[in-house]
Amino acid sequence: MIGFDFFVDKFGIFLSVLFVFIGLMAFIYALATVREKGHRLEFYLMLLLIVGSGVGVALTYNLLLMFVFWELSTFAIWRAVGFYRDKDKIAAANFTFLINFAAAAIMLIGIIILYLENGTFNIFEIKVYNDVAAVLILIGILAKSVTLPLHIWLVPAYNAVPSAMGACLAGIAENLGVVLFLRLFTTGSYFSPAFFSTVAWIAIASSILLGGAALLSNNLRSLLAYSTVSQVGFILLAFAVGGMYGIIGGMLYILAHALAKSGLFFGVGLIEDATGKDELRLLCCMQKLSPALGVLMALLFASIVGFFPLVGFFAKLLVIIGAVEKTAYLGIGAIVAAVFTLLYSARFYHELFFAKPMMKMPKAKKPGYTGLVVIFVLALASLLLGIFFYLPVNYLMSNGGL
């Protein structure tokens, strides 16, 4: 029987609370920054749709219903990326939609195969293992979670999307693929170890190679895009290696990355609004313009890198332990990926806030207070959840739904 069913477990509650929180921060930030009055209603509707589809994916155990939410998210991302209606932004939106829609269509074939062999869309009742179905579904997961080689839509999307909506992409939409991977592929032992090993190495390759691309990038949003691909690769690695450290580490990493990357997107948006520039070589000495923004973005970068006592430290530590527990080679790969995160984050932050000007500085205004408050809340959450890291860890470890 096909039932459109939801269930509430601690993983689902954890993700839902996180997604709603990121959506709320984006809403508050948008109130102060979105000035296109004619399209404001559409903007908030798409924001609500991204948050709602994220919560839907987190709470349903019906693959067909999960696919419906998945496609609602794709539609909302498409409209959000093309929000400003410029020709290049519409092209980026259409490219984003085509990649995600095509990958989702392939994924749907895999879901149908699982249904035909198991007679159910319930992820907890699927017992018949099928290599073809797993690969087809994985294609959809890789596209939505911007994993190599299907990450190609993210850079144009990030360069087109409003900053407030970009935070929702980084904190919510791009996590839907790894959430599906967690729900479907880690609920039983009916998928082969070779499948998980392959996914783990794809995740490491994505994290390392795109971390290298971030190190070479000079555009603020492109750097954020490459960084997102690298960090989501870390989350996928965590779920692929599995075990207590991998699963809990992956969930904690979703939290750490969503908070930090959303805050960094807001920060980049404030810098763009204040200076009218988005290239590192045209920007420098931002510390003089806004010392508060410099401190807040330092905390967010510290969480992404994995500095103690930010929540990103504990998330990254658990993932690396889980990878090492699986094989030493995966552990080494995870450490190399973490080193690239340190390198590109240090370069980005230093050049943006402290480097000597390469040319005449653009005229700049002070960043808006509303945006700074939102970034402060996200940075504070990253710090407090690191200091009291045992609270989310204990909560997740008591989960009985998976």
Protein described:
By secondary structure, the protein is mostly helical. The protein has helices at residues 10-33, 40-59, 63-81, 87-118, 131-144, 154-160, 163-171, 176-185, 193-216, 220-241, 243-275, 286-289, 291-305, 311-326, 328-353, 369-387, 390-397. It has one domain (10-397). The protein is 75% helix and 0% strand. The radius of gyration is 20 Å and the shape is globular. The relative contact order is 0.12. The model has no long low-confidence stretch (mean pLDDT 88).
Using only C-alpha atoms, the radius of gyration works out to 20 Å
Tally of individual domains:
1
Count of DSSP strands: 0
Which residue ranges are poorly predicted, with pLDDT under 50 across at least 5 consecutive positions? none
Helix content: over 70%
* Average pLDDT number: 88
| Biggest sheet overview | none
Structural class: mainly alpha
How many individual helices?
Answer: 17
Terminal CA distance:
22 Å
Give the percentage of residues in beta strands: under 5%
Helix-strand sequence: HHHHHHHHHHHHHHHHH
Shape descriptor: globular
